[in-house]
Amino acid sequence: MKPTVIPALAAIAILASAAGFAQTAPPPGTRADTAFVTVQPQGQWLTSRFVGQAVSNQAGQNIGDINDLLFDKTGRISAAVIGVGGFLGIGEKSVAIPFGSLAFTADATGKRVVTIPLSKEQLQAAPSFEPTERTAYMRAKEQASEMGHKAIDKAGELKDMAGKKIEDMRGGPTPK
């Protein structure tokens, strides 16, 4: 599940804060700084394309993925929140690094590649990032993790119950 409002707002903030963005004349009765952007300007990216983007180290190893972007009131992106470790989001740790430390290139097929000058071990040893806001994506991820833990517990209980039932059907404990 992916939030749609936060990336959209961040994209608007990025587009609005960039110098020289494509725009049309404002409708009558509106201020000039509220003009609409009708086409994505060359060299600008949608934040929705960054969330989930793999992050590699300089050796080309995948070391995490972008979970979120932090931006200030002026619309300037200040940090990227990268998820490291875990499996399918369970056990993952979030680390925020300055946005300026990300490098953007393209591979042979033209696909964007995001790299940082840190190893997976350095990210895992870094302090965790704790947001003060909870997005719908974060809440869904937490619920999925909680449901996964409950499923594991329930599977253990069912296994124990099945073992007891088999033991009862055989007429007592099985020799070891």
Short description:
This protein is an alpha+beta fold and about 180 residues long. The chain has helices at about 5-15, 120-125, 135-170; strands at about 55, 60-70, 75-85, 95-100, 105, 110-115.
Mind explaining what this structure looks like?
The protein is of the alpha+beta class. It has two domains: 5-133, SH3 type barrels; 134-170. It has three helices and six strands; from the N terminus they run H-E-E-E-E-E-E-H-H. It has helices at 5-17, 120-125, 136-169; strands spanning 54-56, 62-71, 77-84, 93-98, 103-106, 112-115. The longest helix has 34 residues, at 136-169. The chain is elongated and about 85 Å long. The N and C termini lie far apart (47 Å).
Summarize the helices and strands and which ones pair or pack.
Elements lengths: L4 H13 L36 E3 L5 E10 L5 E8 L8 E6 L4 E4 L5 E4 L4 H6 L10 H34 L7
Parallel strand pairs: 1-6
Antiparallel strand pairs: 1-2, 2-3, 3-4, 5-6
Features:
alpha+beta, 2 domains, 176 residues, disordered N terminus, SH3 type barrels, elongated
Provide the residue-averaged pLDDT: 78
**Name of the CATH architecture of the largest domain:** Roll
Radius of gyration, rounded? 24 Å
Secondary structure: number of strands: 6
Query: What's the total helix number?
Result: 3
Largest sheet: number of strands, sense, barrel closure: 6 strands, mixed
Q: Provide the CATH superfamily of the largest domain.
A: PRC-barrel domain
Kindly report how far apart the N and C termini lie. 47 Å
